[in-house]
Amino acid sequence: MGQCVTKCKNPTSSLGSKSGDKESSSKSHKKGGSGAGGHKEEHSAPCSKGTSELSNGTKALEVTVETPVIPAVIGETRKDELLDGDGLSLLRIEELFGCYKDEQEDAILEEGMERFCNDLCVDPAEFRVLVLAWKFQAATMCKFTRKEFVEGCKAIQADSLEGICSRFPCMLLDAQGEENFKDLYRFTFQFGLDAEEGQRSLQREIAIALWRLVFTQDTPTILERWLDFLSENPSGIRGISRDTWNMFLNFTQAIGPDLSNYSEDEAWPSLFDTFVEWELERRKKEEEQALVAKEEEGRCTETECSPTTGRLETEGSRGSQTWGGH
Questions:
Q1: Which residue, 19, 50, 54, 197, could crosslink 41 as a Cys pair with Cβ 3.0–4.6 Å?
Q2: How far is residue 138 from each of residues 147, 161, 176, 244, measured CA to CA in Å?
Q3: Which residues of 2-13 are buried (b: 16+ CB within 10 A; e: fewer)?
Q4: Measured between alpha carbons, how far is 306 from 280 in angstroms, rounded to an integer?
Q5: d(CA 220, CA 223)
Q6: Judging by beta carbons within 10 Å of its beta carbon (0-12, 13-18, 19+), is residue 318 exposed, middle or buried?
Q7: CB-based burial of residue 236 (10 Å sphere; 0-12 exposed, 13-18 middle, 19+ buried)?
C-alpha cells in the first residue's frame, strides 16, 4: 500500500469545536444586551434574572433575559444536525476528510494518507489498511476520494478516528468469512493496478507484496514456495494477470501441500504448470541432498568411533597387565 507515515499535528484541532462556536455566539450576544435607560445587565447563565440599580437608588424592574441559540445560517438547518439513520454525524465525517484532503484535488492523496494512517496508529503497509480500503471500496492505492471516504465511513458506522479504530476488530473478523475474503482477494488485484496508466496486470514485485499481504490472517502452506518461484524466475514472468491472480486462490483451496493431486489436464494457467514442475524438482533435489548429507554423517560417525574403540582396548589390556604384575 503506499509508503505513507507522518503524524498529523494535533488533528483534533482541525476538526472544529462545537463548544467554541457556542461560546463565541454567547459572548457576542452578551455584549449587545444593554437595556433602555443606559443601565447594563450582566448574566451568569444563558437564561437568568438580572436586576440593576438606578442612580436615584431605586431598583429597576426584574426582567428575564433568555439567550437564543442562533443557527449559523438563518433559515437553514446546521450541517452538524444532519444525522443519518445510524446516528452518524455527516459534518464530522466531512471535517475528518477535510483534515487530510489535498489542497488542490478533492481527495486524500499520498501525503494525507500518511497522516491519516499515522493518526489511526496503523502502518500503511499492513493488512488493516487493506481491509479499510476494501470497506471504502477505494479504486486506487494511497487515495480516497470524498465519495469513497464518506460512503466508507457510513458503511463501517464511524465518524471519527476513534470510531474507525474501534471498528478494526469487526472488520478483520468480517474479512475471514469465505465469501467476504473472496471479495477482498479480488478487490486487492484491482486495488494494486495503476488506473491512470491503464494497467491490466500487476507488476511482479507488487503482486508478490499483495499476495503476502492479503493472506495475512490465513497463510496457505504453498504460498512461500509460490512467491519464491516468482522471485527466482523474473525473466519469464513479466506480470500477473487477473485470471492468474483469481485462480491462485482456487489453487490454494483445491491442491494439497504435496501437490500430488495437481493435474496439468485441468484448466489451470500455464504458469501453474511451470510452478508445480519447478517445485517438485526443488523438493527432489532437497531430498537427494538430505540423503547424501545423512550418508556422510554416518561415515564420519564410523570413522570417529573406530580409533576410540582401539584406544579403549589398548588401555584395557595395559591395565590388566599392571594388575597382574602386582
A1: 50
A2: 10, 18, 20, 22
A3: bebeeebeebee
A4: 40
A5: 5
A6: exposed
A7: exposed
**Phi/psi of residue 97, each to 5°?**
-60, -45
Which cell numbers in the block locate residue 231? 522471485
DSSP bridge pairs for 201? 241
180 residue type, one letter: N
User: Are the C-beta atoms of 108 and 143 separated by less than 8 Å?
Assistant: yes
Looking at the chain, the whole-number percentage of residues with pLDDT higher than 90 is 56
247 Rama class: left (phi>0) / alpha (psi -120 to 50) / beta: alpha
Residue 309: HSE in the Cβ half-sphere, 13 Å Cα cutoff: 6
pTM for this model (two decimals): 0.67
Contact 150, 236 (CB under 8 A): no
What pLDDT, in 10s, does the model give residues 247-277?
Answer: 999 999 999 999 999 998 899 999 999 999 9
Q: Which residue has the cell 512467491?
A: 227
Max Cα–Cα distance, the chain, nearest Å: 142
**Model confidence at 83: pLDDT above 80:** no
CA angle 230, 130, 143 (to 5 degrees): 105
Q: How confident is the model at residue 236 (pLDDT cuts 50, 70, 90)?
A: confident
